[in-house]
Amino acid sequence: MDSNGIEQIFVEKDQPGQPHRGKVFAAIHAHLDDIPYYAGGLCAKLIREGYTGYIIRTTNDEKCGGQTTAENILSNEQEHIKMAAALGFKDVFDLYYQNHEMDAISSLDIRGRLILIFRMLKVDTVISFNPWGHGEENPDHWVTGRAVEEACWMCGMANDFHEHLEAGIKPHRVLERHYFYGRPGQPFNRVVDISSNIEKKIDAIVECKSQGGGNFGSRLRARLAKQGKRLPLLGNDDRTADREYVRQFLLDDDREYGKPHGLAYAERFYYIDQRPPAKSKVDEYVEKNAVPL
Amino acid sequence: MQRRKFLGRSMVTGMGLGGAAAVGPPPLAQAGQPRSPDLPTKFTPAAYANPGSKHNPFATPDYYQYTDDLLIERNNPGKPHKGKVLAAIQPHSDDVPLYCGGTVAKLIDEGYTGYLIRISNDEAAGKTLGYGVVQNEIDNQECAKALGCKKAFTFYYRNHRMDDCAEVEIRARLIFLYRLLQVNTIITMDPYNHYEENPDHLVASRAAEAACWMAGGGKDYPEHYKAGLKPARIREKYYHARSPQGHNLVNRIVDISSYIDHKVRSNVANRGKGPAGAAGSRLRKELASQGKRLPLLGNDDETADFQYVKHFLMDGWRNLGERFGLQYAEAFRYIGPPPDYRENIRAYIDEHAVPL
After folding, report:
1. Is there a domain that residue B109 lies in?
2. Does B23 fall in a domain?
3. What's the CATH code of the domain at B160?
4. Beta pairing partners, A55
5. Residue among B168, B175, B179 with most chain A CBs within 10 A, to mutate
6. Residue B18 within a domain
């Protein structure tokens, strides 16, 4: 039994070829920097292994960026697009709910919107917050996580938002879920080896300048230059400085998560697989026991 | 009490005018309404008591205020609305048939493609909640057919509890439908109906109204556009009153004389709730058990249901029509397309611009 209460941890390594070709995943986060930190490596890995990925941000991130509220919304919006491109997402959705205030809005409205998107994109797999994860202090995280979880099964039912069918958007169940290991003590049953995708993860984090420390390296480099100093680690340009700062200082968790499994970098998830077996129990029973009339 | 006294007098006046088809005396609105002797002469009445109905509590509301630009919308020859889409939005299965069924049938007959959208599940009417929901679901479909609608939709929110729903979510679903169906015109309950006692009416109409302009914008629910939907430009709205209470602003009277039978049939289709449905055949059966019959009700259930509704339940709209020289009428607060402001500015520029 692991300290997080899960009996067995599965270590997911790189898979050769494109085993997920034809499948779709949606990464749903509340803020610009959630996916890059919690699941940037997994997203890059799944896309490399054949998934088509879409990213959905639920808030407008107006509280983060150190500018006016309006300027924060703009900078986070633009960085979200760049971050998504760095990880290889096919398209970006922004729902723009008010940052830090998602617990005041209608959960039904968010769920309805996610159901439409999941059906429209025919999402097979989601990556998001664990709606039952303890220690979550940010209401945007748990509101988003709950809406995602609820939308996953409802989007497979024809009587929920049946008007979607009129638009040719058919029910489609989401059968696999990866919930972030968002806070210390939250459960996880899967460790994903992201070592070969770490450069993509760094690429994504450096686009998170309004929040997430993406430009800390260049800022440090500039500050040191004013003092007549430099850090060789940060290289000779801002891009290198940002990337190397992230690698050196901001990926400690990923390194720690990998250590027990002999991996350079890893991310943790609570993985739920609801895919039905190829043959149901009834099918097996019928196969064994059916007799001619 | 005073209001009821005034209303009672008006109803008596209405009754004296006789049946639907009668040409009758000059309409009251033209002839001038008898004034209450209790109203001091220094006051000018600001609202007009409706003659209402002797038989149907769900006809016209207590009072109307008429605007000075009131227009009577008469039959339009041909199909002037061809290519346009109408959404009739009702909280309950009997709202559109009762309050605006004639106008819906008229607009569809004049070329509109019509859709009926019911917001609640009507669970509060029926033998059990389950039976009620099923019967009203059927009724909604049948009512849509009777009015000539292409399709009926239902959102199934719980009846009488819509104030517990998230209005933003109802609005979002309406925006989706407006965009999907490319709605040009809506007809629904007046969101500003004073003395409205039914929360479903208020919530549904507010959502319907707000969805109208948001459906045309690019920033509300942009994921709809990724799903292939297009913005909907809703440029016309017909708001109807509800009864018995109500105090509404009216700027459009629609002549529904040619469509009264459509309205009757859509009410007959409402078997799960409301005053119509199978009331005629039930009465016929009851009388037969007493060894009696009403010639009005004919010799079969279908005729009985139709005649019962037409004779007893349509008198509110008959009385309203008579005020305007019409056989039957429905009243609306109509909001039409706004002027083309940009075009007007361009026209000014064309006329007044001079060389530098």
Report:
1. yes
2. no
3. 3.40.50.10320
4. A27, A92
5. B168
6. no
Phi, psi of B6 (to 5 degrees): -65, -45
CATH architecture of A10-195+267-275: 3-Layer(aba) Sandwich (3.40)
DSSP sequence for B58-80: SSS-SEEEEEEEEEEE---SS-T
Minimal CA–CA distance to A250: which of A284, A225, A220, A214?
A214
What is the domain range of residue B227? 48-337
Q: Which two tokens stand for residue A135?
A: 């220690």
What distances in angstroms separate CA B90 from CA A127, B56, B208, B332, one per listed residue? 39, 19, 9, 15
CB A90 within 8 A of CB A52: yes
Q: What is the ipTM of this complex?
A: 0.74
Give B240 to chain A, closest Cα distance, Å: 25
How many separate domains does chain B show?
1
CB environment B3-16: b (16+ within 10 A), e (fewer): eeebbeebbeebee
Tell whether B10 is covered by a domain. Answer: no
Residues belonging to chain B with any Cβ–Cβ distance to chain A shorter than 8 Å: 151, 153, 165-166, 168-169, 172-173, 176-177, 180, 221-224, 226-229
* Chain B residues within 8 A of A90 when measuring between CB atoms: none
Q: Is residue B88 a contact partner of residue B149, using CB atoms and an 8 Å limit?
A: yes
At residue B8, the pLDDT reads 33
Could you report the per-residue pLDDT of A213-227, keeping only the tens digit for each? Answer: 999 999 999 999 999
Angle, helices B129-147 vs B260-268, to 10°: value is 160
Of the partner residues A94, A109, A117, the one whose CB lies closest to the CB of residue B172: A109
CA distance B246 to B13: 20
* Interface contact flag, B169 A109, Cβ < 8 Å: yes
Q: What's the DSSP call for residue A9?
A: P
Asked whether the beta carbons of B126 and B135 are under 8 A apart, the reply is yes
**pTM for this entry:** 0.82
pLDDT tens digits along A154-197: 999 999 999 999 999 999 999 999 999 999 989 999 999 999 99
* Section A67-94 average pLDDT: 96
